[in-house]
């Protein structure tokens, strides 16, 4: 998912460079959403990993 966020970020940069501002804004929004979803999933997995590690040991 983080890979998709980076791809959309690059699309946003390229579109902004060539003057396609609406496409750049849309790609930036998608990249931001995907980044925060990936970050949330990472934090949830990290918390569950720590909690389950404490219960096992």
UniProtKB/TrEMBL annotation:
<keyword id="KW-1003">Cell membrane</keyword>
<comment type="similarity">
    <text>Belongs to the UPF0391 family.</text>
</comment>
<dbReference type="GO" id="GO:0005886">
    <property type="term" value="C:plasma membrane"/>
</dbReference>
<dbReference type="Pfam" id="PF07043">
    <property type="entry name" value="DUF1328"/>
</dbReference>
<feature type="transmembrane region" description="Helical">
    <location>
        <begin position="6"/>
        <end position="26"/>
    </location>
</feature>
<keyword id="KW-1133">Transmembrane helix</keyword>
<keyword id="KW-0812">Transmembrane</keyword>
<keyword id="KW-0472">Membrane</keyword>
<dbReference type="InterPro" id="IPR009760">
    <property type="entry name" value="DUF1328"/>
</dbReference>
<protein>
    <recommendedName>
        <fullName>UPF0391 membrane protein SFMTTN_3074</fullName>
    </recommendedName>
</protein>
<feature type="transmembrane region" description="Helical">
    <location>
        <begin position="33"/>
        <end position="56"/>
    </location>
</feature>
